[in-house]
Design brief:
Structural class: mainly alpha
Number of domains: 1
Distance between the termini: 172 Å
Order of helices and strands: HH
Radius of gyration: 61 Å
Length: 156
Amino acid sequence: MDIHLTLVAQAIAFAILIWVTVQYVWPPLLGAIETRQKTIADGLAAAHEGKSALEVASKKSEVTLNEAKQKATEIIGQAEKRASQIVEDAKGAAKVEGDRIITGAKAEIDQEVNRAKEGLRAQVSVLAIAGAEKILRKEIDGKAHSDMLSKLAAEL
């Protein structure tokens, strides 16, 4: 066996191996590589899209949160205003009720004072008549003096 023949046989075997590889092995490998590249590219594009969507959603949620905080602040302000209005209304109603009670108490006191005065007048007239009666029993007609004392009591 000659070295040249071995080299030629090896070269032919190598050429057949290359031809079989190019015909049957290489196309599925290239297809798999291209599919993998496409899958990776699609994944990167989806990740970029997802990142963009996340940024948009984050900004939108921040805007929504700020709006909610603003509305909450407005509602709290309205509630505080309403609470102070209710307190003021209650104070006004309490003042009106207090004034009414005071007016009623003053009217009742005035009535009691008038009753006491009338009672005292009646007692004074009775005492005056009794005193005058004792004095006048001895002097003049009791009936004339009684009429005069009744007029005097009425004037008191």
